[in-house]
Amino acid sequence: MEEIATIGMIKRGGRMSENRKIRVFYQFNGYVQGVGFRYRMSHLAGHFGVTGWVRNEYDGSVQAELQGLPEEIDMIIQRLCQDRYIEIRSMDRKELPLDVICTLFTGQPVRRVFLCVIVMSLN
Fold this sequence. Notes:
By secondary structure, the protein is α/β, with parallel strands linked by helices. Helix content is 25%, strand content 37%. The protein contains three helices and eight strands. The strands form two sheets. Strands 6-3-5-4-1-7 form a six-stranded mixed β-sheet, covered by helices on one side. Helix 2 packs antiparallel against helix 3. The N and C termini lie far apart (39 Å). The C terminus is likely disordered.
């Protein structure tokens, strides 16, 4: 069974942040499976308040979709590239339209397992 980790988010007030959000699809190639890549990305996404999902592919790559502020997504990618166990040899990136209805990406087939982390702060 294929497994997807749905990555956590932090609810933040203010429309300025919402207007600057982007949604990006990534495919990572290299030494990216069996090294804690999905766990690390999920942890970083929760820390930076980014939503999305991450999954291993049968060809040894990892795919992910991230939605959040550009600088938060950039920080996640930078930290993954600096991780001592992860070796990203190539990375494909494609911007997608924002998912304005869902706060978690739920368009994946039902047969996949979702691991959700949601952190909400009340202001």
